[in-house]
Design goal:
With 207 residues, this protein is an all-alpha fold. It has ten helices and no strands.
């Protein structure tokens, strides 16, 4: 009786996907013509579609959108690989090392503490790594306005500044509205409410 050898070894999905993206770059004219800059809009679109999937609570849809988001990551990595800038392994290696550095309560002998204390330690380690010199360093001004305000207020609070609580009425309607929105973001921070998500949910209730 002849014993059969082991069956074919299947390629791990992530490696197979990498080869698919490399082949598409080589053989698809549209994909071959893309750059980091030309793909930026698609990364933004896929991010918003992923957020929409999260809002719906549909796991099947979320799985699909995460795949589309992953496609963007691999697309950029393959472009960078072609120019010798970096590879997808470099991307994974960097973020793995970052997670180990910024979670010493898991990967080192630091104390864990509460979720707030863990987050505070993360921000402290991050600030040291980034060598920040200004409060707003590292906060993209192109963020959605409520999220941008939330992050700026967080940085100000860490620097010992007091966020606005009850703004005085302004003569300029735009300034008045801006101050009141900023105060609402500060209120959200006090109550542990994400203002961006709260507004998104409120709009969804209208539909």
């Amino acid at each position: 009786m002849v014993e059969e050898g082991p069956g074919p070894v299947s390629t791990p999905p992530l490696l197979e996907f990498l080869e698919v993206m490399r082949q598409l770059r080589a053989q698809c004219a549209w994909k071959a013509g893309q750059t980091h800059r030309s793909l930026a809009r698609y990364l933004l679109e896929e991010t918003h579609e992923t957020l929409e999937a999260i809002d719906t609570g549909d796991a099947v849809l979320l799985r699909e959108e995460l795949g589309d988001l992953l496609l963007q990551v691999y697309f950029h990595a393959v472009i960078a690989e072609e120019t010798g800038e970096f590879t997808i392994d470099d991307v994974a290696g960097d973020v793995t090392a970052k997670m180990r550095r910024r979670n010493p309560h898991v990967f080192a002998d630091a104390a864990g503490g509460t979720p707030d204390e863990i987050n505070e330690a993360w921000e402290s380690i991050k600030a040291t790594e980034k060598q920040r010199t200004a409060v707003t360093d590292g906060i993209p001004p192109t963020l959605p306005a409520l999220l941008y305000a939330d992050k700026v207020l967080d940085r100000l609070a860490r620097a010992g500044a007091t966020p606005p609580l009850a703004p005085a009425e302004q003569a300029d309607p735009a300034e008045d509205l801006g101050d009141r929105l900023l105060a609402l973001v500060a209120e959200g921070r006090r109550t542990g409410t994400d203002p961006e998500q709260a507004l998104r949910d409120a709009v969804r209730r209208l539909l």
